[in-house]
Amino acid sequence: MSLQRHNPAELSPPTGFSHAVTASGSRLVFLAGQTALDTDGKVVGAALPEQFEAALTNLLTALAAAGGTPHDLARVTVYATDVADYRAHVSELGRIWRRLAGRDYPAMAVIGVVRLWDDQCLVEVDGVAVLP
């Protein structure tokens, strides 16, 4: 399996994501959207950084159960109920990402949404991974 990250000089320098990722491997893992729910189904954290850390941890737990690692992530989408709040915390969210998932960034997008399934949730993360 290999993932190759492409960040052409003709585009603005990526910060915390890759512009494109090519993947070759034998198994795709489609990761369902994860929010800041604990094992009892209760929302963890009141602030965006706490919820982002919990949601990303949940995503990586699902990925590990499928036999993958953060390095295998080819695509991640973040759904935020307040994009301005997300932007205000982007440095802290980047530190959380690097601590949990490292510096091999997938292709990513942040999408503003009106609300998520659970009213208290501020962020949801889903993704696609490619495994050997």
Structure, explained:
By secondary structure, the protein is of the alpha+beta class. The protein is 27% helix and 31% strand. It is built from three helices and six strands, in the order E-E-E-H-E-H-H-E-E. The strands form two sheets. Strands 3-6-4-5 form a four-stranded mixed β-sheet. Helix 1 (48-65) runs parallel beside helix 3 (90-101). It is globular. The N and C termini lie close together (4 Å). The model has no long low-confidence stretch (mean pLDDT 94).
Please sum up the structure shown.
This protein is an alpha+beta fold and 132 residues long.
Biggest beta sheet summary: 4 strands, mixed
The ordered string of helix (H) and strand (E) elements is EEEHEHHEE
Spatial separation of the terminal alpha carbons: 4 Å
**Which structural category do the helix and sheet elements fall into?**
alpha+beta
Q: What percent of the residues sit in helical stretches (DSSP H or I)?
A: 25-40%
